[in-house]
């Protein structure tokens, strides 16, 4: 019987060796007012790197202008490269690795603030932008897949150690996987095999780009286990998709996630539901709409440690490839549980937002506990400057925020 790995020992992620098995998950930083790297963004990731994580993940680096969830997000282009290199150098100086989350938001994209067309499997109305996403043609799909490959090439040039392909939360690839959203009748609709073509094609395009570049970086993906919505992606279908991705051989690991940014985001973010604060982040009439109907969009799910573990164990039982456990990882006991259940890495979000040095604290004292109380008021701050309202961390620096 294989001994349970220590979460604080070095581990390989594809061709990359991380100093431990703890990854800072991608959580949108709201630190790029001009869609370029700022000192604030660097600080946002440098703090958890100095605080002990093995790798930090930059979110969300869109593969095209129209693939952003809002217009201030970075998208891959020549002008962004010097700042991205400055960012990767800063993280490496702290002894950590850095991953770039690459993706296209699809129906979640804000066409109004992006000033660019959004694309979806079918024509789709986004209430946050008050705009319709365009039915993606075969040429649109090919362009978006190629944009992922180009993003991976640029990530290598910018010094990233890994890319995380966004296949979750009903973004572009995930929206094709969803039987609720994808009502197409062509080769990309109907059967799961057809609906999975975009996700599988995107991963293989990225893998080919990385291999051709000749610089060894890891390729991972964030995949929904379930949308938490009736008629959406189910655990059974997602498991089959994961098996296909494993067979295709394009990934070094999968980070297992859940929830729909369009319909049910709290399925991922368990705990309190800050409807008042969330509504306050928007202008009328959207603010009024959220206050009146917020409980239908922001449903409440009680918080518990390792809350995605039950579903994730189904994937662990069927897959041989490395898996990253996300959701309710805040202390050494839960990290050890993840290792005991056969997961290769753990990913942390809110707890590291509250305390970027939490990993060093846990390493020094296994009984250390996070101060995060899962109030989720940080969710509402992603529209201004993402931070923990309890601790105030991370504080903005002089970057125009």
UniProtKB/TrEMBL annotation:
Record domain NADH:flavin oxidoreductase/NADH oxidase N-terminal: where: 7-247
Record has Flavoprotein as a keyword: yes
Keyword NADP: no
Transmembrane domains' residue ranges: none
Keywords per UniProt: Flavoprotein, Oxidoreductase
GO molecular function annotation: FMN binding; oxidoreductase activity
Source organism superkingdom: Bacteria
Coiled coil spans: none
Protein name (database record): NADH:flavin oxidoreductase
Organism of origin: Mycolicibacterium iranicum (Mycobacterium iranicum)
Record lineage: Bacteria, Bacillati, Actinomycetota, Actinomycetes, Mycobacteriales
């Amino acid at each position: 019987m294989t001994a349970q790995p220590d979460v604080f020992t070095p581990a390989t992620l594809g061709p990359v060796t991380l100093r431990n098995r703890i990854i800072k998950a991608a959580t949108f930083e709201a630190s790029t007012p001009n869609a370029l790297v700022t000192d604030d963004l660097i600080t946002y990731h440098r703090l958890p790197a100095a605080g002990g994580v093995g790798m930090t993940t930059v979110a969300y680096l869109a593969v095209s202008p129209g693939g952003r969830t809002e217009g201030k997000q970075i998208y891959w282009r020549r002008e962004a490269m010097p700042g991205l290199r400055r960012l990767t150098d800063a993280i490496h100086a702290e002894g950590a690795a850095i991953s770039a989350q690459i993706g296209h938001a699809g129906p979640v994209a804000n066409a109004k603030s992006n000033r660019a067309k959004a694309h979806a499997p079918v024509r789709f109305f986004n209430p946050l932008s008050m705009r319709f996403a365009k039915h993606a043609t075969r040429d649109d799909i090919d362009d978006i897949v190629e944009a992922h490959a180009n993003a991976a090439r640029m990530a290598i040039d910018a010094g990233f150690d890994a890319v995380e392909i966004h296949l979750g939360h009903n973004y572009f690839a995930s929206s094709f996987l969803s039987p609720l959203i994808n009502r197409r009748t062509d080769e990309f609709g109907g059967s799961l095999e057809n609906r999975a073509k975009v996700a599988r094609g995107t991963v293989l395009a990225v893998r080919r780009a990385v291999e051709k570049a000749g610089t060894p970086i890891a390729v991972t993906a964030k995949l929904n286990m379930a949308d938490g919505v009736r008629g959406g992606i189910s655990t059974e279908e997602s498991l089959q998709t994961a098996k296909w991705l494993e067979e295709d051989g394009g990934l070094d690991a999968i980070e297992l996630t859940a929830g729909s940014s369009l319909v049910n985001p709290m399925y991922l973010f368990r705990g309190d539901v800050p409807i008042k604060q969330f509504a306050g982040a928007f202008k009328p009439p959207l603010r009024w709409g959220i206050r009146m109907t917020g409980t239908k969009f922001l449903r409440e799910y009680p918080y518990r440690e390792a809350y995605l573990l039950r579903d994730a164990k189904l994937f662990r039982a069927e897959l041989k490839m490395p898996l990253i456990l996300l959701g309710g990882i805040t202390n050494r006991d839960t990290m050890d549980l993840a290792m005991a259940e056969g997961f290769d890495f753990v990913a942390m979000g809110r707890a590291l937002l509250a305390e970027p040095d939490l990993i060093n604290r846990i390493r020094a004292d296994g009984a250390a506990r996070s101060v995060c109380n899962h109030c989720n008021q940080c969710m509402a701050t992603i529209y201004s400057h993402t931070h923990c309202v309890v601790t105030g961390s991370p504080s903005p620096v002089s970057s125009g925020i």
